[in-house]
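Bit of a strange request maybe. I'm writing a small parser for structure token strings and I need a real example to test against, not something I typed by hand. Could someone generate the tokens for this chain?
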Amino acid sequence: MRWSKAGFFFCISIIGLCLIAGGLSLPAYGREEGKKDLPQRGISVAPEYSGVIAAQGEDVSVDIKLINKGKQDEIIELMLPSVPKGWTAMVKTYSFGVTGVYVESDKSKSLTLKAEPDDDVGPGKYTFLVKGRTQDGKLTSSGSVVITVKPKEVEKKSKDVKITTSYPVLEGPTDATFEFSIEVENKLDKDTVFNLAYEGPRNWDIKFKPAYEQKYFSSLRIKQGQSESMAVEVKPYLLAEPGRYPLKVKVSSPEAKAEAEIMVVLTGTYKLDAGTADGLLSLSAIRGKEANLSFYVKNTGSAKQNTVKFLSFKPENWKVVFKPETLETLAPGDLKQVEMTITPAEEALVGDYSVGLAVEGEKAKKNLEFRVTVKASTAWGLIGVIIILVVVAGLLTTFFRFGRR
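Reply from user aminoacidic:
Good idea to test on real output. This should exercise your parser:
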């Protein structure tokens, strides 16, 4: 049987197409064969580093790998069931937090565990647990990261400059101005300009100045081997709570630096206010009779007032009584009502009198002055009217008797 040229090329083309089709189907067949070795379902949550070391106060980021080991695509939900006290942690991408992620079969995805410590987190070991769970809850996997926090390195003090202060701790009320006397000694072998800086509470006003002068500077020139004195003026924030507040004073140059710690102890401010609800400081009274008046006492300072007493300054033989007689304690912002009873003397004349009041607390005092108008009793007024009527009647009787004669 003889082949024509056209028939020969047709057969070659068919064979080539079959080979190409068979070759293209091999990878797909290989992938299907590979998936036959996978379990139906399986997940894994694994941190890239199970243990890391960080300096005190430093944030930590560790990559977390999520692996889908099964044939079925999965949505893996993420949670942090164990976060040490004092830490804030979350699983996130480069820009936002993540609570769940879609992972295809036989694929993996990477996320990040971000852990941030509070300021009071000290050295030690802290364990974070990252847990993954399939959306139907049938599969779980977890991994842990142990963060070892090392203490901050203490900066070595320079021997070429020295800071000293005779009174490193000053105490007073919140509205006071504190002035620390500081001496800086230059131990370098040349004249040096030292820059001045500080660390202190937020919203506090801290400045450097010459002692006993009202001008301020930010650097200090000291001759070699000599010392210079300066003052650190500290004005606390007016809303600062009573307590102890440490501050740092720093001096530095390219060749040397040093720092010293000072402290302000705030006792709070001691202030009292007193008055009446309507603002009037006057009342009327009848001699020998009680007259009542209410007034308030308010703690307008930031420190608690203990044992607030009341003192009166009154005319002779008058009586002034307070109820209650004292206030045992008055917290900042508290307001209490006090009843005052004033009894003028029996022999007091009709007219205006002054009664002084002193409200005395702990390191605070408030004075008030009341005007008391003393009036005669209504009974005496009635008796006076009767006497006048009797006199008039007697005059009329006399007039008519002698008028007839």
